[in-house]
Amino acid sequence: MAPRTPKSADKVAEEIIEWAEAQGLETAFDRAEKLKPCPIGHSGACCKICFMGPCRLVGPDAEETARGVCGATLPVVSARNFLRMVAAGTAAHSDHARDMAFTLLEAATGEAPDFKVRDTQKLKKLADILEIPTEGRTKEEVAKDVALKIIEQFGQQKGEIAFVKRAPKKRQEVWRKWGIVPRGIDREVAEALHRTNMGVDQDPENLMMAALKVSLADGWGGCMFSTDITDILFGTPRPVRAQASIGIMKEDEVNVVVHGHEPTLAEMIVEVSQEPEILEYARQKGAKGINLVGMCCTANEVLMRHGIPTAGGFLNQELAIMTGLAEAVMVDVQCIMPAIVEASKKFHTKVITTSYKGKIKDAVHIQYDERRAKEVARQILRLAIDNYANRTASGSRVHETSPLIAGFSHEYIDYMQGGRFRASFRPLNDAIMAGRIRGVAGIVGCNNPRIMQDSYHDYLAIEFIKNDVLVVTTGCGAHACAKAGYMRPEVALEMAGPGLREVCEAIGCPPILHLGACVDNSRILTIATHMVHEGGLGDDISDLPAVGLAPEWMSEKALAIGTYFVASGMYVIFGSESPVEASSEVKRIMTEVWEQRVGGKLEFIPDPEVMLRKALEHIDKKREALKLRKYEPGRFGVERKLMSMEDRRKLEKLSRPHEGLK
Ligand code: MSK
Predict the structure, then answer these.
(1) What distances in angstroms separate CA 521 from CA 106, 472, 514, one per listed residue?
(2) Is the CB of 518 under 6 A from ligand 1?
């Protein structure tokens, strides 16, 4: 029999997957193997926007000759498909942001009494940006105006969304020159859907410029609003210790998994889980306590602010249930597989949906309402506690975990480089200019069962830091690094190149910085802007020796994020095949046309070694353009060798530092 191919680089996940296979329990990994993607849809050559089709634009010269029933060409079809995906990703992040803005409003007016303004400094900063007076006003009055102003941004019909002015001046000019400054978030999403409707925008270049525009409504709109409001309501993150891995599920406590994206209800669950009455109720039912466990980006939100342990990212959701230890999985919106309900039927787990927008057949539904948030949180916890006695099925129980440090908001990164009174990005910029740090890489985005889970994230993170590239990470990419043990500073410092190590030790930060959830990719935009403003690295984001990567992406939200980084001037590399692979014209627009107009480009590269090589080449090219000292490996110590994936697998044991840890 052929040896089994491992599905995950997360050792605990891999053990559970193997156990599930032996039990005949199906997971996303099995379904991905059984269900081959339709090659026509996969490559962007299928048009299903009207009922004359679906039209499949295939054939030897499809680019030139294939036509849909209406006459649409392959580049038009691919560009329309791409724009729709970016619009959907933008809608998702932005609807999340809208809910956050309404929660802030209700917190300010007292309608949602369980929520308070926690970070007044951040509130003031936002009020200043939004030109809202603060002098002599209560924080509630200011918060109300901030919330109303942000809510207005969704339906704004004309002008420019407010946060555009946070970008470097030169960047704003580029956007204005090409007419891609978003007017209002909803307007851009609606217009993208209109333009891609049958018989409207049929110029691939025009469609792809619209993709840049709608994505900017995400990055400098929805995502940034969401990050800032979450910081105001729950506190701006500072470094915090935690644990990662599905192994954090406890045998003798009530395990409650909080999964999804919006942090509001999860924050209430964190608070309520510490109430004496709830803890006493758990004890009465035979449990020693309540163990809150994060999943996906809800995990990142409560990890960044409270150190709540994370069970991992997207692909760990079914696996967490298969431990047989999850009393409840509470979900809200985004990245929730309907398969968790099927998985839960084999165990005692209750899957609880909490948003009217995201119901799943056969799940328990408890509607969340921010006006009685704690009451809903208590109801969920009591249901989970009542379910503790029902644990019967044996699951796959592995109890290894990895320690980590998270909590690097852009404010903290600023602070750590100079303290309260001299906070700045000077040390980072100086280190890049001197060649101690070669550049910066953002490794973000999802897991995808068509790629060995975490393997590309882990490989790239380590190779970048070995090559003196500072890594910032969010979303499931951050989970991958955390589970692998790379967010333990001493481990990462040991692996980092000598220049990067020296700088990190001097500043007191790890070489891989966890910046938060997917919406917190906006923190990367802010960091890039700070670096530009600090001076010495050009006058636009496109000048920075920096790259963005989403090596294991799967979500439309990842495409929206990647596109807003391109629109902001970055070189962005996605893993796997391109969703517009069928059209060389659209691929040309994404690279040549976008680069020429906005300074950034988007490439899809399936091979992680090529991703790494091209990313480093780009960083060096940007260094050269800035006339910075040529990066010399080992100049500040011993040179480290670029490692192939094969070498890396051989060193699996070394690179999985969580093995053997308590
Ligand atoms: S959770 S969007 S799988 S990063 Fe934000 Fe992970 Fe991608 Fe969802």
Answers:
(1) 26, 9, 11
(2) yes
Return the sign of the alpha-carbon dihedral for residues 113, 119, 122, 128: positive
pLDDT in tens, 487-501: 998 888 999 999 999
**Ligand 1: centre distance to CA 108 (Å):** 30
Please tell me if the CB atom of residue 403 comes closer than 6 angstroms to any atom of ligand 1. Answer: no
End-to-end CA distance of the chain: 35
What distance in angstroms lies between residue 381's CA and the mean position of ligand 1's atoms?
A: 25
The correct CATH number of 246-390 out of 3.40.50.2030, 1.10.10.10, 3.40.50.300, 2.40.10.350 is 3.40.50.2030
pLDDT for the residue numbered 656: 38
Enumerate the domain spans of the chain.
11-65, 74-234, 246-390, 417-625
Q: Fold identical between 74-234 and 246-390? A: no
Asked whether the predicted pLDDT for residue 661 surpasses 50, the reply is: no
pLDDT tens by residue, 553-587: 999 999 999 999 999 999 999 999 999 999 999 99
Residue whose CA is at the smallest distance from ligand 1 atom 7: 446
Query: How far is 491 from 317, CA to CA, in rounded Å?
Result: 27
> Is 417-625 a CATH 3.10.310.10 domain?
no
State the distance from the centre of ligand 1 to the C-alpha of 518, rounded, in angstroms: 6
Taking only the tens place, the pLDDT of each residue in 393-409 is 788 888 899 999 999 99
Classify domain 74-234 by CATH number. 1.20.1270.30
CA distance 31 to 483: 24
Region 128-148 average pLDDT: 97
Q: How many whole angstroms from 169 Cα to the centroid of ligand 1?
A: 31
Please give the pLDDT value at position 658: 31
Query: Hey, which bits of 416-482 come out as E strands?
Result: 439-443, 469-474
CA-CA distances (angstroms) from residue 31 to 8, 295, 336, 452? 15, 21, 16, 14
CA of 100 to the centre of ligand 1 (A): 18
pLDDT in tens, 15-38: 999 999 999 999 999 999 999 999
Give the number of the atom of ligand 1 that is nearest the alpha carbon of residue 553.
7
Closest atom of ligand 1 to CA, residue 477: 4
Pocket mutation for ligand 1, best pick of 230, 557, 559 (most atoms within 8 Å of C-beta): 557
